Amino acid sequence: MDDGSKSRSSVYFNTQQFNLNDQKTLMKLLNEFGLETSLNKDKKYYRIRIRTSSLNLFKELVAPYMLRSMIYKLPL
To answer: Which top CATH class is 4-68?
Structure first.
């Protein structure tokens, strides 16, 4: 539950150590849940970003499975 981060308008998965093909595979799977994603360059590596338009759906999907102590990691 801890390998990601949030900004004011996005959620990031810290997938920088995965190769691009694996990240694209994960993005396709997330898309099957209706989540719009993109790759975001973080220094010289890429990470997966949940687009702002999908934040509400992302929260709906993951909040029931999160520990209460981790809910603060979701965007408002």
So the answer is: alpha beta
